[in-house]
Amino acid sequence: MFSPVLDCRGRELVLDRPRICGIVNMTPDSFSDGGKFLDPQAAIEHALLLVEQGADLIDFGAESTRPGAVPVAAKEQIERIVPVIEAVAARTRVPVSIDTSDADVMRAGVAAGAGMINDVRALRGEGALEVAAESGAVVCLMHMQGEPRSMQEAPQYDDVVGEVHRFLSDRVFACQLAGIDKKRIVVDPGFGFGKLLAHNLALLASLERFAEIAPVLAGLSRKSMIGEITGRKRVGDRLPGSVAAALISVQRGASIVRVHDVAETRDALAVWQAMPEQPVQRGAARTPASVWDDD
Ligand code: 7PJ
Q: 277 CA distance to ligand 1 centroid (A)?
């Protein structure tokens, strides 16, 4: 059985079963836990709690990307996130990811101990490709239409699955040209980033197609699409819907789910994995071996 292994700068993420990425948002205005983990000690403790609950990876965000968000200066992101990454990397063996589009923040995050760079702009920012290539970190390339400030105003596609697939394939190619090994790349269709509910659902239904490009990370946790489907306006009421979405993601071929609620997601995935005939037995993730064929 083929199981990709992501080498997050010495910390391995084995994709032999669906993996859980716990979210720690250190932004003042994050839509779901805005301001809660601005205090470094609170962020560190929350990250360690998520690890205890079964997170296989922790993603730290210092830059808000919620719809309508205004960019956070690099210096401020670095000051917020570096001490936290250092502390968490020292206190657990779980790989740490830094959620940023800024090359300077990436460099500082990796120096502090991050083994993955998670970029909602797929390394299109100035210097980002070069820093990522030099860093040796795994990169998560996400699709976004437009910019956070305005992306939900009028998202438009002729063929959302085809266009996102093309974008991600092109970015993988750009990464390889910059010297990033294919085995260090993860792709993400970017749920909610310049997408209407119908777009998000089409992407979710076709997740397997993205696994043809690289291992897939899917982030639907507490997002507005869950609110739209369930009628839950309060973000805190979206847990059951989010767990269902995580489960569907892995059934459709996601290797990693990015979630706020690690304990609950872990249990849901464990029940699914216990089923002997489930396709997870083929290795989390249906990332086919051909994705990593040496050419
Ligand atoms: C995503 C993300 C996502 C990746 C955010 C939130 C909003 N990175 N950063 N994928 N969403 N790769 O925390 O829900 O879906 S910020």
A: 31
Q: Where are the domains of the chain?
A: 5-291
**The domain defined by 5-291 carries CATH number 3.20.20.20:** yes
Active-site residue, 258 included: yes
Q: How far apart are CA 72 and CA 271, in angstroms?
A: 40
Confidence grade of residue 287 (pLDDT, cut at 50, 70, 90): confident
- HEC profile for 174-217? HHHHCCCCHHHEEEECCCCCCCCHHHHHHHHHCHHHHCCCCCEE
The answer to which of 53-67, 122-136, 262-276 has the lowest mean pLDDT is: 53-67
Catalytic residue among 223, 238, 252, 266: 223
Distance (angstroms) between ligand 1 centre and the Cα of 173 equals 22
**Digit-coded pLDDT (tens) for 8-46:** 999 999 999 999 999 999 887 666 666 777 889 999 999
The Å distance, Cα 93 to ligand 1 centre, comes to 23
Q: Is the pTM of this model over 0.85?
A: yes
Confidence of residue 291 (pLDDT cuts 50, 70, 90): confident
Is 232 a catalytic site residue? no
* Alpha-carbon gap, residue 145 to 178, rounded angstroms: 23
Nearest-CA residue for ligand 1 atom 1 is 219
